[in-house]
Amino acid sequence: MAKKAIISKQKSKPRKKNTKKPSQRFLESMKKQLVKKRKDLLKSVKDLEETFCAPMPSVIGEGEENTFEKEFTLSLIESHEQEINLINKALQKILEGTFGICIDCDCFIEKARLKILPATERCLECRKIYEKSSL
Ligand SMILES: [Zn+2]
Predict the structure, then answer these.
(1) What is the Å distance from ligand 1's center to 125 Cα?
(2) Cα 40 to middle of ligand 1, angstroms
């Protein structure tokens, strides 16, 4: 009788959490990045708003296209404003000392992730779960 191979089922270990607190230096660099990004976004919103409010050249037959462009500009402004809000939140968190902590699992968000997305509120794992649940 052949021995049954013991399949070592991987027990669901608790996910290894990043508990490394970001250093003050890292926070400073994040702050700079966020402030700069916010400045760019605000400028971009201003430009877009000017475009949006500027009277469209009345070209006969292009009315629909203009409406489409206006809607596009508006959605762009909205997404910029959402990002500015996130940046403001992130900056507030830097002040409070809670920056880089995932709002879902309380771990510290990976540094590499913060470097690309300094205003992110979730770690990669939670982001995946969040995206799945919001589908
Ligand atoms: Zn998380």
Answers:
(1) 6
(2) 28
